[in-house]
Amino acid sequence: MKPAPTPSNPLPPPPWLYRVAGRLLGPLEKMLGITCRDFVELSSEKHECALSAGKNIRYFLHRLICAICRKQERRMEHLDRLAGNVISREDSDLSVKLAPETRERIREHVALEIEKRNSS
Question: What is the number of domains present in the chain?
Answer without folding.
Answer: 1
